[in-house]
Q: What sequence folds into this?
């Protein structure tokens, strides 16, 4: 199944590359905007620290306000980007099911009536549940480390937390897509019922999904390694021959960005194809 998912994803992108790329533009553009704004916010905070000459209550509160503004601004941008990415995934699913990749499907989450705020509710419920799990294990780790003072027990709790979080990610990773798909197909679902539905959906496929994530991880590692090596080579060339190195470095950066976008689109499509396979 995994090999079929990987090959089908490649064929779909090959046959619809222009349409899929244009569908992805909102996420790409906002992602670039996010990077620019994040850099600007970072510079604002750094400048406030550089200008901090007299340590007074007002000056300290001024720096704290900048930090709070940075955190709030970054959180809002991350939230918007996350929902745009989620909407794009839903758009890929809808387009692949209909065999028609339209630009408007990039906003599938927001075009479907009453879905976007229910997705937010699902994410809130999920976040609360995960936070409780982390909180319980954090308490266990604290007790085992400072009161029982057992290194082995502390290590077991830490490993247990990592394994449990990974298990949760595998089990509920398709919750949003599955909820969206159930709404489209008029299947019985709801904010809380969606968790039960996705649990039943992924049962029997956790191993396959884990294997798929390993493959994607290896591909990502290979991609970053190759282009990291390319950056290193051209950086060395830039230091030896500034004019040529600067020009080639510019070309390499463009190619890295382009292939990075294509690879991101491919991995997203792989996830969609895998979901369709287990939803049959």
A:
């Amino acid at each position: 199944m995994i090999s079929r998912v990987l090959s089908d994803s490649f064929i779909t992108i090959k046959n619809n590359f222009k349409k899929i790329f244009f569908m992805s533009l909102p996420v790409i553009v906002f992602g670039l905007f996010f990077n620019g704004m994040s850099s600007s916010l970072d510079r604002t905070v750094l400048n406030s620290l550089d200008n901090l000459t007299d340590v007074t209550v007002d000056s300290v509160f001024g720096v704290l306000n900048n930090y709070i503004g940075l955190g709030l601004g970054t959180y809002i941008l991350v939230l918007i980007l996350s929902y745009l990415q989620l909407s794009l995934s839903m758009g890929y699913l809808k387009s692949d099911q209909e065999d028609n990749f339209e630009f408007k499907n990039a906003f599938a989450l927001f075009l479907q009536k009453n879905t976007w705020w229910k997705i937010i509710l699902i994410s809130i419920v999920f976040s609360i549940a995960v936070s409780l799990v982390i909180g319980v294990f954090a308490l266990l780790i604290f007790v085992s480390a400072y009161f029982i003072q057992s290194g082995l027990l502390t290590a077991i709790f830490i490993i247990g937390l990592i394994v449990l979080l990974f298990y949760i990610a595998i089990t509920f990773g398709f919750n949003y897509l599955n909820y969206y798909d159930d709404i489209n197909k008029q299947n019985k679902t709801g904010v809380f019922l969606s968790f039960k539905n996705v649990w039943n959906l992924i049962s029997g496929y956790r191993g396959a999904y884990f294997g798929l994530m390993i493959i994607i991880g290896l591909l990502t590692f290979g991609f970053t390694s190759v282009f990291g090596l390319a950056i290193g080579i051209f950086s060395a060339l830039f230091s030896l021959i500034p004019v040529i190195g600067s020009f080639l470095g510019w070309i390499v950066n463009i190619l890295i960005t382009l292939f990075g976008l294509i690879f991101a689109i491919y991995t997203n499509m792989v996830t969609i194809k895998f979901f369709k396979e287990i939803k049959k």
